[in-house]
């Protein structure tokens, strides 16, 4: 099976650069509402925090290269819970503003968001459109990951897959979903194609939200663990054709 990467990038580019007109209106309860020509939606707490934190970064309150306050401190500053802080940080990291270093903290990477228009488009995107883009990217990713993966890639992918399996077996739904998304993001990184990786990484935030709405327990995720393990074996063995066959099965699983 041959996948034309040019077609994928052209499709993704056309999808991501499409922008509807956006109007911001202040409601009587001081909640910001984002209105497009077809939908009206309230921002989540995480999105609102991300906007405010982005403004502070742009204004120079936090220097590029500097470390952000801890999660607990950010919770106090913005008056939100830990999960909201983590989601807001993930949004800004995806936009290229922040960089999370495991065990060290979160650092300011840039004052300018490299994917801001893409992020806004994805926030408004129809679930069907997002799913279509995901399927296109997944196919391109596994084929190239199987051809180009390194030992370091294999170890990272395997670590996330083990986390996924352990969380699924223990019934920890949110942990399992996070590990599943990390597994697929690591596969995209193994393509060693920066554009392909960035496209998938940008989509992953919204894919995770979608999965959190779809699943009520880890049953289906546990059932699909063996298929994901087969995909990893295909990538390790550098078998792109078999990897394509396996991802086709995964994309059909509930």
TrEMBL record:
Keywords annotated in UniProt: DNA-binding, Transcription, Transcription regulation
PROSITE patterns reported in the protein's UniProt record: HTH_GNTR
Gene3D superfamilies associated with the record: GntR ligand-binding domain-like, Winged helix-like DNA-binding domain superfamily/Winged helix DNA-binding domain
An annotated Gene Ontology molecular function: DNA binding
Keyword flag Transcription regulation: yes
Pfam family, one: GntR
SUPFAM superfamilies named in the record: GntR ligand-binding domain-like, Winged helix' DNA-binding domain
The HTH gntR-type domain, residue ranges: 43-111
InterPro entries associated with the record: GntR_C (IPR011711), TF_FadR/GntR_C (IPR008920), Tscrpt_reg_HTH_GntR (IPR000524), WH-like_DNA-bd_sf (IPR036388), WH_DNA-bd_sf (IPR036390)
Protein name (database record): FCD domain protein
UniProt organism field: Alistipes putredinis DSM 17216
């Amino acid at each position: 099976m041959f996948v034309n990467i040019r077609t994928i990038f052209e499709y993704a580019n056309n999808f991501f650069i499409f922008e509807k007109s956006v109007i911001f209106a202040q409601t009587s309860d001081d909640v910001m509402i984002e209105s497009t020509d077809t939908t009206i939606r309230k921002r989540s707490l995480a999105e609102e925090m991300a906007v405010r934190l982005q403004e502070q970064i742009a204004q120079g309150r936090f220097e590029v290269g500097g470390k952000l306050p801890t999660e607990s401190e950010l919770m106090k500053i913005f008056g939100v819970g830990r999960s909201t802080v983590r989601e807001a940080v993930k949004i800004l990291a995806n936009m290229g503003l922040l960089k999370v270093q495991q065990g060290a903290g979160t650092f300011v990477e840039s004052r300018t968001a490299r994917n801001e228009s893409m992020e806004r488009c994805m926030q408004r995107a129809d679930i069907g459109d997002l799913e279509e883009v995901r399927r296109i990217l997944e196919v391109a990713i596994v084929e190239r990951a199987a051809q180009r993966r390194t030992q370091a890639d294999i170890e990272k992918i395997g670590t996330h897959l083990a986390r996924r399996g352990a969380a699924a077996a223990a019934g920890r739904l949110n942990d399992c979903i996070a590990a599943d998304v990390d597994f697929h993001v690591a596969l995209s990184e193994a393509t060693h194609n920066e554009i392909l990786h960035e496209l998938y990484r940008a989509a992953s935030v919204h894919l995770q939200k979608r999965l959190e709405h779809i699943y009520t327990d880890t049953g289906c995720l546990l059932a699909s663990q063996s298929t994901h393990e087969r995909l990893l074996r295909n990538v390790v063995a550098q078998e792109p054709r078999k990897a394509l066959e396996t991802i086709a099965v995964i994309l059909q699983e509930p």
